[in-house]
Amino acid sequence: MTAIVVKDLVKEFRQYRRFSGFFGSIKSLVTREHTVLRAVDNVSFKIEKGEAVGYLGPNGAGKSTMIKMLTGILVPTSGHVRLMNTIPHKSRRENANKIGVVFGQRSQLWWDLPVMDSFELHKYVYKIPGSKFKDNLNFCVDMLRIADFINKPVRQLSLGQRMRVEIAMALLHDPEILFLDEPTIGLDVMAKDSIREFLRTVNREKKVTIMLTTHDLKDIEEICPRMVIVNNGHLVYDGAVTNLKSQLGNQRKITVEFKSNPGQINLPGTHLVFDEGRRKQFSFDRGTASVFDLLATLSNQYTVEDVSLEDADIEEVIRTLYKQLEDPLNTANNLQNVTKSLSEQVAVR
Ligand SMILES: Nc1ncnc2c1ncn2[C@@H]1O[C@H](COP(=O)(O)OP(=O)(O)OP(=O)(O)O)[C@@H](O)[C@H]1O
């Protein structure tokens, strides 16, 4: 079943020109000169129920605007958006029952009240039956380990504690889709890990569809097998994280541990990354060398004790993509490549 359908979606904002100085402020009010900015430009995608999708793009690409249209906060300029058969901005109450929303930079909790009071209010507003509320609360309290501070006022919580509580609250009414805008922003490594693990469990066990925006690519790698990438409002990639890695991440690294230090080695088709005597690392291009040939060459001449292979990491791949997107000469080419992959993905679905 399809959870989210977005078709030819457009959101335009009017940006008013502001003149400086006192007379300038008056002129700004009177003339109302404006330009129109397309924050979301003809975007289409579908997300199936139970999927976990990362929505990615450089600053100002239109990610938050998309999430706001999906959650019914903003009305699209044109195009279609449907969430489990409702139109978010037209049926806001019905839509609210189906979705949970977490904004990393904004709290939905009552600042001066104990956390539990915010949860009780949520129960009242969403008319959550007692037994369902209890089950969901117990699940979140156990999995997110929030028991120790559930009776503290929100303002006394650390950022990591608050985020765990925000996520718990978003799930109390059993939403079918969970939207998260930068859920791990500003958190330490341990807090990020526990939130990622929890989201994976919610997606796997409760089959909650997840769509998240993030600048932390580890969030994507650990939670979302699929990513949608936007740039300047346009969709530039929709597909598996692994596909993008194999399209753009051509560089691989091979680390070899020899029985004894073989000295300097000339391995055709590779570059030496580091040389620690017995342990050396080489990088090579998928297209110019094969792992088997490299290993055969090495083991013919030396005694190899251990070998490990690394693909390009996701940070590197996204950096490459963003650089290509910034380059006007490259953009047309790149868009063709990535949208070709998009068409393949759509054809598969
Ligand atoms: N209410 C608004 N009025 C006018 N312009 C807006 C409004 N909201 C967003 N924009 C503009 O729309 C574009 C997309 O903004 P959006 O917040 O969706 O980007 P984003 O991808 O979420 O960025 P970031 O990663 O920096 O959070 C930006 O150029 C922004 O200035």
From TrEMBL:
GO MF entries: ATP binding; ATP hydrolysis activity
Protein name: ATP-binding cassette domain-containing protein
Residues annotated as domain ABC transporter: 24-257
Assigned keywords, A-Z: ATP-binding, Nucleotide-binding, Transport
Gene3D superfamilies: P-loop containing nucleotide triphosphate hydrolases (3.40.50.300)
Family matches, as InterPro entries: AAA+_ATPase (IPR003593), ABC_transporter-like_ATP-bd (IPR003439), ABC_transporter-like_CS (IPR017871), ABC_transporter_ATP-binding (IPR050763), P-loop_NTPase (IPR027417)
A UniProt-annotated Pfam family: ABC_tran
PROSITE patterns the record matches: ABC_TRANSPORTER_1, ABC_TRANSPORTER_2
Source organism of this protein record: Lederbergia citrea
